[in-house]
């Protein structure tokens, strides 16, 4: 099973005021808040962590059938290796492995329950107006869209 999430950074700047009082406490663990506070680009780190949580939640929801997105209960950890941003998200006793790409206009994360499967995931990202006419018929393993971007992943 695979998950993914895409964040349109331009839209996120307009739609979200993550700096407002109490916002970070509702979404991020204390360790994640430290990552945000010490990041070279705090805005980018917020959306990296958010996309990791969303991608992992999409898998967890399908596995458990539980529809309870409580982002602060999902704990992210990050590792940089070979110019890649790899990480994991823990949800109770379950762990999902992630790989995140940060581009000038969007952040995209893929997730899987099996670490070795990360390298087998195919990614297609489209920007408006260049979406496939009927992307649902493409049978992607997971679909994500935000703002101008549509991300389809396959395994």
Automatic annotation (TrEMBL):
<dbReference type="InterPro" id="IPR037143">
    <property type="entry name" value="4-PPantetheinyl_Trfase_dom_sf"/>
</dbReference>
<feature type="domain" description="4'-phosphopantetheinyl transferase">
    <location>
        <begin position="2"/>
        <end position="62"/>
    </location>
</feature>
<dbReference type="Pfam" id="PF01648">
    <property type="entry name" value="ACPS"/>
</dbReference>
<protein>
    <submittedName>
        <fullName>4'-phosphopantetheinyl transferase superfamily protein</fullName>
    </submittedName>
</protein>
<dbReference type="GO" id="GO:0008897">
    <property type="term" value="F:holo-[acyl-carrier-protein] synthase activity"/>
</dbReference>
<dbReference type="GO" id="GO:0000287">
    <property type="term" value="F:magnesium ion binding"/>
</dbReference>
<dbReference type="InterPro" id="IPR008278">
    <property type="entry name" value="4-PPantetheinyl_Trfase_dom"/>
</dbReference>
<keyword id="KW-0808">Transferase</keyword>
């Amino acid at each position: 099973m695979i998950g993914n999430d895409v964040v349109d950074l331009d839209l996120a700047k307009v739609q979200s005021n993550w700096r407002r009082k109490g916002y970070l406490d509702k979404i991020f663990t204390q360790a994640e808040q430290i990552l945000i506070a010490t990041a070279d680009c705090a805005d980018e780190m917020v959306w990296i962590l958010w996309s990791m949580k969303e991608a992992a939640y999409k898998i967890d929801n399908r596995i458990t059938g539980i529809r309870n997105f409580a982002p602060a209960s999902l704990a992210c950890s990050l590792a940089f290796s070979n110019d890649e941003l790899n990480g994991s998200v823990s949800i109770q006793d379950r762990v999902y492995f992630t790989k995140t790409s940060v581009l000038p206009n969007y952040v995209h994360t893929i997730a899987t329950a099996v670490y070795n499967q990360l390298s087998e995931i195919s990614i297609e990202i489209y920007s408006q107006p260049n979406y496939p006419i009927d992307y649902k018929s493409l049978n992607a393993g997971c679909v994500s869209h935000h703002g101008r971007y549509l991300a389809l992943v396959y395994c």
